Amino acid sequence: MIRLIAFDLDGTLMGPDQQIGPRVRRAIEAVQAQGGIVTLATGRMFSAALPFARELRITAPLLAYQGGWIQAPDAPAPLYRVPLPLEVARTVLALAETQHWHTVLYADGQIFMRGLRYPAEFYLALLGPDFHLVRDWETVLAAHTPDKVLFVADPVHIPSLGRILHEQLDGQAQVFRSHARFIEVVPQGVDKGTGLAWLADYLGIPQASVMAVGDQENDLAMVRWAGIGVALGNAIPALQRAADWVAPPLDEEGAAAALERFVLGEVSSQ
Q1: How many CB atoms lie within 10 A of CB 116?
Q2: Do 113 and 177 share a domain, yes or no?
């Protein structure tokens, strides 16, 4: 019996319009009404995931920063946090400066950038509202604990950024593609799988009773770890291969289909 369900947010529960479909809402409401626990597992920072949790009436701890920050919606502080080591942050930021990459530093629940390359609406929609423009990185690191570094680029350039990051970091941190335009550096050992395992243990729920649903590379770990791993039909091929079941795509509200099939005991006619 599935008791805990973790959903990726962008590309799984909602598209670029930031709207969660009515069938998904109904399914999540039904699961929670019968005692199931629903959470969000996202690369977004906690404050950027919180409005969607409120919208869905989720009260369980949320997995932010790829699982490196776990906090309940009404709690004043995280239950679990794994910061990015300072020396790794400095290495990554120095590399980005030499490569002229568009860099976003997350630290202490805030976003820092040295400049904007897209309209402000782009950052508000995909990153969150709390971003600050700064002159240099060292001033930020002197005052804040880093959580992750994200790079924004044209989708065709993301693979080359990933290769460079893997070569330079050489196992010092995890590198994930989390969006068509995003690649991220998070602490070594941090991913949605380890975060979901921590949360399940905290809640006293066995692995076999956990379901995870996602669409991107950064969802691989949790989809593989969960008792039932689900990839949406729009997911990358690697995630579809790793999943126990491939649901309909986002535009057909595949997240709802997963709940109907494995939790609510319904077979959708859609």
Answers
A1: 12
A2: yes
Q: Is residue 270 part of a domain?
A: no
The answer as to whether 105 is a domain residue is yes
pLDDT at 252: 98
Question: Looking at residue 11, what is its pLDDT?
Answer: 95
Alpha helices by DSSP H, listed for 68-209, are: 86-99, 120-126, 137-143, 158-169, 192-203
Q: Which pLDDT score is estimated for 122?
A: 87
Residues of the chain with pLDDT under 50: 267-270
Domain span holding position 122: 86-187
In this prediction, residue 104 carries a pLDDT of 96
Provide the pLDDT for residue 125: 80
- Give the helix, strand, coil percentages of the chain, each rounded to 5: 40, 25, 35
The verdict on residue 125 lying in a domain is yes
Cα 188 → chain centroid: 16
pLDDT at 53: 98
The DSSP output letter for 202 is H
The DSSP bridge pattern shows strands 110-113 and 102-107 to be: antiparallel
- Judge if 258 and 209 occupy the same domain: yes
**Phi, psi (rounded to 5 degrees) for 189:** 90, -10
